[in-house]
Amino acid sequence: MKKIPQISEAELEVMKIIWKHPSINTNEVIEKLSKTSKWSPKTIQTMLLRLIKKGALNHSKEGRVFVYTPNVAESDYLDIESLSFLNRFYNGTLNSMVLNFLENDKLSDNEINELYQILEERKNRK
After folding, report:
1. For 14-28, what is each residue's pLDDT tens digit?
2. Buried/exposed code over 59-69 (b: 16+ C-beta within 10 A; e: otherwise)
3. In which residue ranges of the chain is pLDDT below 70?
4. Which end of the chain has fewer CB within 10 Å, C or N?
C-alpha cells in the first residue's frame, strides 16, 4: 500500500468534500465548507494548498479556477487510520475495542444486532 500523507482534522474535512465531489473547483469547495464550518475562504484555500504540498490532492487550472482531485483514495485513508487507531488504543486488537464498547454500553441493541448480522453474513460467505 502506498504511503498516505498525514492529514489534520481540519484538512480531513476538506478531503471529505473532495472525496464526495471529485474534480471540484475552489469556489465549490468554499461553498460546500461554508455550510458546515466558519472558516474563511482564505483559510480553506490555505488548507487546499497544504493538501497539495502533502501530496493528498492534485490540482489543475481550468479557465480561471483550480480543480482538485484526490490523490489518496478515501478507502486507503480509512484503512490506514483505522489500523493506526487500533494500534494506538487497543494494541492492534479489534476484539479489545469491541469488548470495550460492549462493556461500557457504547453500543445500542440495534448496533449489536447489526454487528451480529454483518458477522453472520461474513461467516456464511466463506
Report:
1. 999 999 999 999 999
2. beeeeeebbbe
3. 1-2, 126
4. C
Strand order in the sheet with 24-25: 24-25, 65-70, 57-62
Residue 48 buriedness (CB in 10 A; 0-12 / 13-18 / 19+): buried
Of 22, 17, 15, which Cα lies nearest the Cα of 50? 15
Q: What cell does 102 get? A: 460492549
Measured between alpha carbons, how far is 71 from 107 in angstroms, rounded to an integer? 34
Instruction: Find, among 21, 124, 126, 1, the residue nearest to 70 by Cα.
Output: 21
Query: Per residue, what are the HEC states of the chain?
Result: CCCCCCCCHHHHHHHHHHHHCCCEEHHHHHHHHHCCCCCCHHHHHHHHHHHHHHCCEEEEEECCEEEEEECCCHHHHHHHHHHHHHHHHHCCCHHHHHHHHHHCCCCCHHHHHHHHHHHHHHHHHC
Instruction: Encode pLDDT of 36-56 as tens digits.
Output: 999 999 999 999 999 999 999
